[in-house]
Amino acid sequence: MITRWRRSLAAARANLGRSVAALAPGADATDPGNEVLRLGIKDTPAIGDELRRRLAAEPGLAWLTVDRAAPGGRAVDTGLLNPLTGRPMTGSTSGGPVNILLGIIDLCVGTDGGGSVLGPAAATGLAGIIGSGLGLTCPVERVSTDGFAFRPALGVIARDWPTARTGFRALLRASGAAEPPAASLAGLRVALPRPGSVTLPDGADMAAELEPYLRPLWAAGAEPVAVDMTGIAARERAMALLREIWATADLAVTLEGPVDLFGLGDSVVGSLGPPGAALQARGGKYLLRALNLVGCTGIALPVPRLSSGLILAGPPGPVGAARALAAADLLAPSLRMPPLFERYFFQLP
Questions:
Q1: Chain centroid, CA 221 distance in Å
Q2: Which InterPro entries match (predicted)?
């Protein structure tokens, strides 16, 4: 009988040069069994060899793939298609989410400068988290395509939130970082877009689309705070909002997307005159483009809406991270993807 690991290896080999950059060292010389989570790690020098070794040694994980990254760190990967939409894949952590949808791996570790983990997660209906609010960043300095200096955040994308949570704990341990403490949601002030302040690329009002997903928060005693989020498709405006909002809120939640479906949320495209700017504005990316740049914890939770996700933002520091994680733990069980999605994806040949 061919084991799941061997089937995964065969599928990874079949996708070499596409979503898979290489097999992990020694992946074809072992078979860790069916109980492990199969891991991919982004093909980027920002994730050093020592961290890769530590992740590979984490109990319950088995490193299988080195995942393609969008050339030049772009926010879209025009050389790879999103299996869900058939559009160019969102980047720059582009190969890992594709490999998850193809059933090759269960989770991947990537880097996020200005949305390069949370954007791909939302675009593919997966869960994601970045640890910049806990100082979980790469030891390299970069400049974004639109001129902002940053250190890339480390993050995880996974087939569902429990798997992302497990992967994030492993990433914290491998990085030598402490897991944030437990947090209560009672009395938590949650910033939401004011009705009419943000219109999504498909013409829907963000506030109206978001509200039905948040009922568990209100039942747990959290309190909504309506905020004018006009203009947050522009990164500068999103960054300014995320610096100001913590005076009146403990958590911010948006519904973002459809990501890279009606447009391309890419700064290179956006720099090319009115046609490019219009296409970028319809990329469906809002706060997720700014979270790492202002040191926030960021979480993407899949929702049953094409290429869209709840984006949870916690302020810098362990308390902000703890609140974002607690909110995600509460919300995730009620955010079920359609059975057809789960039946079609995550399946090995």
A1: 27
A2: AS_sf (IPR036928)
The string of pLDDT tens digits covering residues 126-147 is 999 999 999 999 999 888 766 7
Rounded to two decimals, the pTM is 0.98
- CB neighbour list of residue 60: distance below 8 Å, 6 or more residues apart: 35, 36, 37, 166, 170
pLDDT recorded at residue 84: 98
Which CA distances in Å does 18 have to 63, 67, 156, 277? 18, 9, 20, 29
CA distance 285 to 296: 16
Number of domains in the chain: 2
Residues 23 and 348: their CA atoms lie apart, in Å, by 17
Q: How far is CA 84 from the centre of its chain?
A: 16
Domain containing 170 — which CATH number? 3.90.1300.10
Q: Are residues 163 and 206 in the same domain?
A: no
Listing from the earlier edge strand, what are the strands of the sheet with 223-227?
A: 20-23, 61-67, 37-42, 107-112, 153-158, 127-130, 297-302, 309-314, 251-256, 189-193, 223-227
Q: 81 pairs with which residues across the strands?
A: 88
96: helix, strand or coil: helix
Token duo for residue 344: 């079609």
Task: At 240, list the tokens.
Answer: 């300014």
Amino acid at 44: T
